[in-house]
Amino acid sequence: MSANYGAGSRPDARAGIGLRAPHVGELLATRPAVPWLEVHPENYMMGGATLASLETARRDYPVSFHAVGLSLGSAGKIDRRHLERLKTLADRIEPCLVSEHLSWSTSGGAYLNHLLPLPYTDETLAVVASHIHEVQESLGQSILIENPSSYLRFRHSTVPEPEFLAELARQTGCRLLCDVNNIYVTGWNLGLDPSAYLDALPTGTVGEIHLAGHARNDADGQTILIDDHGSRVSPPVWTLYREALQRFGPVPTLIEWDTDIPELPVLLAEARTADGLLEAARARDGHARAA
Amino acid sequence: MACSRRPELEMVMLALHDLQRLFKDGLLADDEETLLAHVAGDGLDPQARLAIYRHHVLTTLTTTLESAFPVVCRLVDKRFFAYSADAFIRQHPPAGPCLVEYGALFPEFLERFPPCQGHPYLPDTARLEWAVHQAAHVAEVRPLDRARFDTIPLDDLPGLRFSMDPTLSYVSSRWPVEKIWRAHQEGAEPAEVLDLSAGGTCLEVRGVGDGVSVRVLDLAAYALRHALAVGVMLEEAAGKAVAVDPAFDLIGAIQQLLQDQIFTDFTLST
Hints:
The complex is a heterodimer of chains A (291) and B (270). Chain A has 291 residues and is an alpha/beta fold. Chain A has a single domain (15-290), classed as TIM Barrel (Alpha-Beta Barrel). Chain A has 9 helices and 12 strands. Chain A has helices at residues 21-30, 48-60, 80-93, 122-139, 161-172, 180-190, 194-200, 235-248, 264-290; strands at residues 15-18, 37-39, 63-66, 98-101, 104-107, 110-116, 144-146, 175-179, 206-212, 215-219, 222-226, 253-256. The radius of gyration of chain A is 18 Å and the shape is globular. The two termini of chain A are 36 Å apart. Chain B has 270 residues and is mainly α. Chain B folds into 2 domains: 12-119, no CATH class; 139-270, Alpha-Beta Complex (Outer Surface Protein A, domain 3), CATH 3.90.930. Chain B is built from 12 helices and 5 strands. Chains A and B meet through α2, α3, β5, β6 and α4 of A and α1 and α3 of B.
């Protein structure tokens, strides 16, 4: 049975940016017109000046938490100490959204600092669903689960990833964070059709979209796409984003940039591009409702 | 898949647990043969697919260590640092996702790492950098109210134990690590040749506002403050300072500690 949690104040269906350390000073000094911000809560758990800057930003912007450390797919127990730190921070910042990944990072007490791939089996579904329940109960709000970028798949996976996500949402009441760049990267690397992937996601459950750049690397003479968040959103990912908006309607969208971080205006310009497409989707939605 | 009740875990834990243990060993120990049998190739060698993950884990954690130990990185050059970091990460991966807390064991690792034996001052330089890193990131705590201290009866003073500002660390070395550290800050003027035999140093590292202060202490003040920081009673800590310097001015030293607002709390030993 899926629990019902208060939705919190969800951000408008407009395009925000991931706030990273090099931009904090400029953002606080110039207060650019960006509708919402997203941060990795793990970067603020020590408190101190870093947290103080986030609290200052929070006064002017809705802030979403994009967690990377809960390791929802790890067999065994969730790290309660980490979950409590997340809860303490959430009580202080009151994030408009909280999201995590369909992945694992911790095994045998070692945190491997990567969103590692899962076999999509009944066992994994039970593990991840149980951990999502636990996180949602602790935070008192539903979370969003993001599709990861993958570079391999396991032979014993029995369920396609979008169906696995749909089932998680059905069992736990979580919503989905559709990372359009990740769908493109995974599709390329594993030979899947990104449009078919989008079509397999249930429309009502997508509560956020992520966009980012990726790199093209050579692996054994083959091109592999690396989800490095290190460049502008690529043209095929913009195309796929348009398809996503057609399917899901206007959804809060976020631009992520984590390596070779550009000047803040470059990031804001990417968000404005996404905002233009969201505006068109809103107009379409309005027409459809009026008709 | 149609089950909607809360999943039961006990029956099914083993397989995923084993897969993740194999994956971890594949990433950190290059012990990957068993794991690779479970990985689909899809037109690319499974080994090359796993290597993408390994590369990401090792390079991002190396970057984390570089940002905590920038002076060590400059002292040994970036390639040697990456080589040392690679070995460290494989032996001591992070215990949790807050990576600003990762690297506490790196100084000890450098001490034992054979390729670093030609740089005996390196572990202590790394200890100083870790202290600076901590001071910059640990949240400050409100200092002890002086009026509260003044209410303590004189007879109780010897039995006091103090809690100290959590940004504090004490670092001592037989190498001139403070000079080494200052000379290798980003943008520092090229230093005159450092005399490694110039003797050791005793340092107090502390977060101050948005910055970090690194102060050289004399031996007796270091003995007192370091002892108090590790929870030793005032009487015993004072004894350590006097053992170093029989003319040590204890009253003046305590007044200085209060003026520095180093204490956050105290308890009375009975």
